[in-house]
Amino acid sequence: MSRITTNVFAPPTSDKDLMELAGYHAYMNYDVRTKLKINDSNYTVLNTKNNEATGLNALTVVNMENKEVSVVYVGTNPSQKQDLLTDLQLMSDLTPAQIADARDYFNEMDQKYQSAGGIKSMSGNSLGGALVGSIAIEHPDVKAVTLNPALLPAGMMEPDMEYSNITNYFSSYDPLTKGLSGLDLHSRIPGHQYEIFNGIPVPSFEHLGTNHTGYLRKEDGSQSYKIGMPGQTGEGEIFIDADTHIVTSLWTGSPLYGGNTDYIEINKENLIVLAERIDSQVKARIATAKDYLANSVEIIEDEGSRLYERISMLQHIFEESFENSIGDPLFIGITSAGSCLKGEIDNLISLLERAEAYCRSLNSVLNSPPAELVEHMFNVDVNVEGLFGKARNQLYEIRDEVEGLSRMLGNMISDLIPDLFKGGTDLWYDAVVGELRAHFDIINGNKDKLVEHIEQFSAQVNGTADSFESRDQSIGGNIRAGTEVADEAVPVQKTTSFVLEESPYLKVGMRIKEVQLDVAFTAFKSFAYIKVFPFIVALKTLAEFIEITLEGISAAIKGAANLGMNHTLPGKLIGIFTDFDDKITAYVHNTLKPLDEMAATVEGIRDGAERLMFQFPSLVSNFRPYLDQAIFNATSYANVQLYNLAAFAILREMEMTFTDVVTQLGQNKANAIEALCDVSQKVTSNMGQLGEQVDRGTMN
């Protein structure tokens, strides 16, 4: 197939085709004579190149419609050492061997296909883009298109040269070109540089690769990312193929970057073309944007329908987190009125009363006739009322603190947590969902108006074209017949004023969730430290006081018994001749047993309160991510943003398309065309207004 004759009547190979060749087909390892279908054109692979010594990989293809021959250079292969070496050398002022090899390959193919006019165009992605640039600067007659190209070695290109034959497309989320621009190295990429709005702004390895190459390489050839799980609300796909994001003239298909296309004569034929392209291209893209927005709304509605589930989940998480942070069975149920701890305090009071009763009995024994001499000589007595009255009051206080803590925690769960969801422009009960729902209600209405506006404009263009033809035929017939020319015109769709509604919502964009989270968490944190934490501190302090009091009671009882029975001669004599000491020992044991049981329980309360005090800051801060998730599911929220971003990209592209329509129609001074121009300006304006509203729902 080395002898090819160019078809001069077919349009030249488009930027879109060259981009797909560079970002997708170049990486597919095709054999010679492989047939390719790219957009509306057919291609055949004529030649391939694989030089392991330099790392060069390339292919040559012919466009079967116009017979133009193009060379496509393959980008970096991470598993190929020479490619990685070449990438490093591009950062220097050295000329890598792969560039020299690429130039040789271009010259070889250019000579081989001279019958077709030589090589008419080149394309490449990444490293392949740098190879294209290094050749195109020396061949200004060859069209060059790159996608996210690497830079050229320092000094290879003239900094003041325009290199108008080279067009570089930078994807919005490509890490390479973003990095080069950030380091101000993009000036070492020759030619024009234009941003296209493709890619997925999600920091994952999978997306980084396709954001750079512009395409997925699935077995079925599909070019979309699945959003959401199968069967999940809002499940859908976002199309990412880079060439569909090159904005072109509806008339010529030429890219609209860097200025408008050449002047189009506004006649019947071109008006019909305009109407047909609006129907076949613009409406299709707007329909895709509508699908994206519909998926966003579906996710928002689903999240709103689960408000009480989200509140309940957050309440349950807080309750479990609070109790688990203490790690003591005593504190189970502390967040409710009927807590174990409150019951345990009542049990402590019962134990104290039992100990008090035994202590009174002990006093009776100590004050009985066998011990009267001891008491008379040494005044041995246990102050039951004084010691036990103090402990009882302390237990009543700690019970009040436990009740207060349970009450505050209950208020926190039942009242405060639901209030954390409230807010937004109109003080919604479900702030983020309410804000998004209200905003997208307006967007949906405006979207319908825009679609109807485009429909009306298309009908008016068709009507104007028909009127041109009808008037022309009518005037020509009347002239030939020698009759008076009738002033008649074909009816044209009347103009309706489509005024889009302004939205007072989402003024801070999708930061609305972050704002709501900050406000809600601040309220939660304030309540926790002002209303709850003081009860925990009081609980620990009172537990310590009770421990001291119980130790005092135990010491007093032991001291009185020992003084009365073991440290005086009369006491020893009584012990020898009676069982009086056994009675005292028994009463002491019975009195101390409930006190010891109380001491163990109070120690557990103190330890639990101490742990809670220590872990309280972490408990509060750890609540934030759960609150974030409950306000609006993080994955669902990100999917809403992705859908909106994809819709916004289309609207921005369509706004550029209609700006060109306005410019073309504006160059014709016919009254009807001026009227169409006015309508197209309003469509463009509405496109921009809707785009701005959709943009508020993106990752801006």
Strand content: 5-15%
What is the CATH H-level superfamily of the domain at 15-222? Answer: Alpha/Beta hydrolase fold, catalytic domain
Low-pLDDT ranges: 371-379, 475-480, 483-487
Strand order of the largest sheet: 1-2-3-4-5-6-7-8
Fraction of residues in helix: 55-70%
Shape: elongated
Description:
The chain is of the alpha/beta class. The protein has a domain at 15-222: 3-Layer(aba) Sandwich (Rossmann fold), CATH 3.40.50.1820. Helix content is 59%, strand content 9%. It has helices at residues 15-23, 81-90, 97-112, 127-136, 175-182, 205-213, 268-305, 307-326, 340-366, 369-378, 384-419, 431-481, 512-565, 569-577, 580-621, 623-631, 634-666, 671-695; strands spanning 35-38, 41-51, 56-63, 69-73, 119-126, 143-149, 166-171, 192-196, 224-227, 236-239. An eight-stranded mixed β-sheet has the order 1-2-3-4-5-6-7-8, with helices on both faces. A two-stranded antiparallel sheet has the order 9-10. It is elongated. Residues 371-379, 475-480 and 483-487 have low confidence and may be disordered.
In short:
The protein has helices at residues 15-23, 81-90, 97-112, 127-136, 175-182, 205-213, 268-305, 307-326, 340-366, 369-378, 384-419, 431-481, 512-565, 569-577, 580-621, 623-631, 634-666, 671-695; strands at 35-38, 41-51, 56-63, 69-73, 119-126, 143-149, 166-171, 192-196, 224-227, 236-239.
Write the layout of secondary structure elements.
Elements: H1 15-23, E1 35-38, E2 41-51, E3 56-63, E4 69-73, H2 81-90, H3 97-112, E5 119-126, H4 127-136, E6 143-149, E7 166-171, H5 175-182, E8 192-196, H6 205-213, E9 224-227, E10 236-239, H7 268-305, H8 307-326, H9 340-366, H10 369-378, H11 384-419, H12 431-481, H13 512-565, H14 569-577, H15 580-621, H16 623-631, H17 634-666, H18 671-695
Parallel strand pairs: 4-5, 5-6, 6-7, 7-8
Antiparallel strand pairs: 1-2, 2-3, 3-4, 9-10
Helix pairs in contact: 3-4, 7-12, 7-17, 8-11, 8-15, 8-16, 9-11, 9-15, 11-13, 12-18, 13-15, 13-16, 17-18
